[in-house]
User: Fold these one by one.
Assistant:
Number 1:
Amino acid sequence: MPGPLEGIRVFDLTRILAGPSCTQMLADLGADVIKIERAGAGDDTRKFAPPFIQDANGEETSESAYFCAANRNKRSVTLDISKPEGQALAKKLIAKSHVLVENFKTGGLAKYGLGYDDLKDEFPGLIYCSITGFGQTGPYALRPGYDVLIQAMSGMMSVTGEPDGEPMKSAIPVADLMAGMYAGVAINAALRHRELTGEGQQIDIGMLDVMVAFSTVQGMNYLSTGNVPERLGNAHPNIVPYQAFKTADGAMILAVGNDSQFQRFCDVADAPDLASDERFATNALRLQNREQIVPLVQDLLLKQPTQFWLEALEANSISGGPINKLDQVFADPHVNARGMKVEMDHPATDGGKVTLINSPMKLSGTPTENRMAPPMLGQHTDEVLSEVLGMDDTELAALRDSGII
């Protein structure tokens, strides 16, 4: 069954992670994503290695695992947009596209004649999505933006880490990924607007904006009280008990989401005194008395091994779970039942397969489809230019000889 974005062509001028994660989502939903890369170099993440994916014999290939994380279902075309001939060719492909996505520095594409202002009149139906560190306007607009910088400036690092430790970034590049997520949502909204009116528009995604929005609960806690949130380690700012605890043989998460769950936990833990203690009768009181209740809960959990608690909590509809390492995640029966790993043929593997993290989007009528593995550099140049622009072998050879492709 065709994907919901089948028939939509995306001219993809993104690299690293924020932009590619966006365009991979569009590709997973059926869009024809044409990834434009520099000949001989390509997306910077092709060199963010090791590790590399392995071939059929378990040997390293030339393809980085990082690149493969965000470039499934795309076609790679090499094109030198620094040359007038390359810019002219880019415009021909843009004329055949519905969406352009780029994550150059603000104003970076204007010097190639490919900025939004350069294209909007010639292509009034074009949806032009720019993903940058700080957006197209404002005093920081011209600054380069990287994930760790945005995590720091957005306040995320200030609330992440142990109370007596230093501010910490997330181990996952959440600023990049959330920028890609918001961009994907905005592009789909713009496609709907285009469908209704025929009009294109520019989408301005700033990573700092995204992470300020991402502060959600912590941001609202500050705006509502004027109190600057402090780091709480694995604890929750608004719910208690809701954090990591040690057990007799390890550690786990206990996430008591409401008062009835707390009462059930006390029953499971054989702690009637805790259940009847007026200091802990409601979440508001438990929050107020966090320093008293957390040690009491910790003492209870130390009495039994992790598996005992996991089984007891599940049997009583109390939220709790293991703190998995990634090998445990990808061996988890639920993760596998949900199809979160996918194997695909890859030209670099000499007959082997590459294992990828699958899309989490589950659509009953138009499911995502894994059509193509992350491409080799320039793998589809001839295919795209002949299919989309009707170029013949002679024209392609001339472009290649002149270094344009």
Note: The mean pLDDT is 97.
Number 2:
Amino acid sequence: MSSKDAVLVARPEHRGEPVPASAFGVVHKPLSRTERLFDNPVVRKGLILVALALVWELGARALNNELLFPTFGATVRALFHGLVGGGLLHRVWASLKVLLMGYGLGIVLAGLFTAIGIASRVGTDFLETVTAMFNPLPAIALLPIALIWFGLGNGSLVFVLVHSVLWAVALNTHAGFLAVSPTQRMVGRNVGLSGPAYVAKILIPAAFPSILTGLKIGWAFAWRTLIASELVFGVSSGSGGLGWYIYENKNELDIPNVFAGLLTVILIGLLIENLVFRTLENHTVRKWGMQA
């Protein structure tokens, strides 16, 4: 029999029965219906929200002072009336429109600053210096200067929003680029990538977890900066955003509407985090195996 016709056959004395997983301490027990239900993160988070709402309701009932702390039920009713006929949707759209302008412009400028930072050692020194100077500066502290430069309107809001987004996104993006392994860099060079193609196909995918973190932080900073700025002035051409809605109802001592506005801020934050950023994360870093 030639070597081509040779067949490997296990000798009888080397054959054995399969060892069950339980012998190694591993027991595959089917999950119950309750366990499968709790295995869903949406269900777990929903139960947490229900528990918090229940604590809110019980605490407000115990305090029994609607001027200080309305119940969750009263807040939800005020939110419903505000959405149906109270102009709350218009206020929300006014805020989101300004937020998108400031957030988008901040991301563009962050990309420009990051490009300068990775271009050379001088660029890195420049980026580190300006971020050390301006990142600790609260965006709301620039509001008086913005009012002088841009007047009472959306220009001032966009200015402070850009400041709140720019440094967080630029810092995280630059840190992500610096953390790309030399092996990945060499792979890109070996296949002939350079310039924008090298950045798009090697640096950005490898650094995307850091980039995504910067986008999340920039969004959180921008959202709270916008609401705080609108609480200070927020009126442009006779109308204001969500922060101004909260301020107006505070002046009228309509506290359920004040809490309805605050609840709207929270709900929008939850929607952006769990629908926009979670979807983006699932289609990028989780799909690429960069995160469990």
Note: Strands lie at 235-236, 239-240.
Number 3:
Amino acid sequence: MSVGIDEISFYTSNYYLDLRTLAEVQNTDTEKYYQGIGQEKMGMAAPDEDIVTMAANAALPLVERVGSDSISTLMFATETGIDQSKAAGVYVHRLLNLRDNCRVVEMKQACYSATAAIQMACALVARQPDSKVLVIASDIARYDLDSPGEATQGCGAVALLITANPRLVEIHPEVGNYTEDVMDFWRPNYRSTALVDGKYSTKIYLKSLKRAWENFREASSLAFSDFSYFCYHLPFSRMAQKAHQQLAKLNKSGLSLEQLEQQIEDTLIYNRIIGNSYTASMYIGLTSLLENCRQNLAGRRIGFFSYGSGCVAEFFSGTVVAGYENWLHRDAHRQMLDARKEVDYDEYLQLYRYPDPRDGESCEIERGTTGRFRLAAISHHKREYTVC
């Protein structure tokens, strides 16, 4: 019996800032962003959007197809938590009208936790093959204005349905892990934006890739040459290119830079115009590969490298299932991306600085999202969500 990803859908805000605009305001060369970090646009959440509304919007197409009563477990991965106690997934549970005996839990370990959720979901399905587990990763990446990380901001959510005999990607059980206590990126409870040591984080990312791959080779007979494509965690697109070149060099692949680029380029298309979505980024990258690759991916093996700062990393593999192209949400995703509204710099600042109540005061929130779900108000410390 195979276990893996039966369906996948993602969502991002209807607002974006073109990094050309940011470059003009900062009086810097646009290529610093377009080529230097490989990013073109950053998604900006509307005032009435958060990780809950984005998650529900991402998952809605999956739940509408299989029925809300068929989901046995909802696992919510995020590093943009909205409550120290209550899982964000419980709000999503209500918005999607899931059954009342559906298990719900939130997971956190920087950008890695979606992978942990998927591996645990696969284990649950292997134990109960008739079950369907909904995994959602949802995040809003925010950094201080005028900081090195500002251009890598973004937002997005991805929903994956994990089942037996999946129709998209079979996930294989062999994994390679690496964990180390480091301070390359973190966000204390008293801050709304993250702290990051960019150069050190890149160094740790690459070190973790090497160590996770070495551990994977101990658990699996697969070699670098057995993989046709690779999906990497995407804080920015250039990071994946650096990582893939290192992995190829480590394995003495003999492939040219052009050949190596072909193994990852289709995974970067959506990320370039959405920006960093933390836990969701690698799986939006997978969606991008499945929906944009002109080659038939059936039977092709994909290598996945998931990294979460602080740090936990994992390398694992999956094989694309024949007929996968019949179960994608390609048209809906492209329509969503094409319908987004570009904001100017002043509008960007308004979105960035929109009040985020932290003292429990009553707050009605203006309508901005075009999504199905929105955060309508915060009253007496309670978040109030509505269906549009």
Note: The first helix runs from residue 19 to 25.
